[in-house]
Amino acid sequence: MDQYIAALGQAGNALLIDCRTLESTHIPIDTSATAIVICDSRVKHELASSEYNQRRAECERGVAVLGEFLPGIRALRDVSVADYERYQARLPEPVNRRCRHVVTENARTLSAAQALQAGDLTEMGRLMAASHQSLRDDYEVSSDELDILVDLAAPISGVRGARMTGGGFGGCTVNLVDRNALPEFYETVARAYHRSTGIEPHIYTSAAAGGASEIRE
Fewest beta carbons within 10 Å, which of 24, 37, 149, 207? Predict the structure, then answer.
């Protein structure tokens, strides 16, 4: 995903990527009144590599089990939310929770693209909150620091949504924040996060920028 957005990013757009076909679709995102804010927890737990191998194995186990009832599926992207709910009782834990995250996150991603296209940042924020909850509870790739940042951001007036981003186990959160709320956001999150963790977060305001390009002098 990082390489795709670096190569194909267009200013003013998010990028919807189909990881099976490698097709991509630019989705307009208006940041004139609402900014993209990145909060760096400045913590990275050394778990990502081994834990993600485990998550992959658990998801593959889920495909194998669900394939007994849904012939022809190749991956969890072939499983609808309705199909998952119909057969979830057949899945052992934690495989069930891993599959629930992937299936519902696929659906949320498509809904998020529709929300952005409609300019509905309130719905986008709701989907971000649900995504973080799923990453935290079902996929279990969040961290205490990321959860603190999300919990601090969510109740601030003008925050449309907050979730972890990237590989998890530390790193950053991404937030949609009304521009008139930015001063309060910066002050509240920075102060409360430092009080909770002893760490000064790095907070950046961004827009949806273009990808890499050749610079000629």
Answer: 207
pLDDT digits (tens, 9 = 90+) for 66-111: 999 999 999 999 999 999 999 999 999 999 999 999 999 999 999 9
Say which residues have a Cβ less than 8 Å from residue 103's Cβ, sequence separation at least 6.
76, 79, 80, 81, 84
Strands (E), the chain: 13-17, 24-28, 34-44, 159-165, 170-178, 202-206
- Give the integer Cα–Cα distance in Å for 62 and 58: 6
Terminal alpha carbon distance of the chain: 30
- pLDDT for 1: 81
> What element of type H or E holds 196?
helix 182-197
Mean pLDDT lowest among 79-88, 130-139, 160-169, 195-204: 160-169
* Cβ contact 115:147 at 8 Å: no
Give 106-133 as a DSSP string.
HHHHHHHHHHHHTT-HHHHHHHHHHHHH
On the question of pLDDT at 13 being above 70, the answer is: yes
Q: Which two tokens stand for residue 110?
A: 């498509």
Catalytic residues: 2
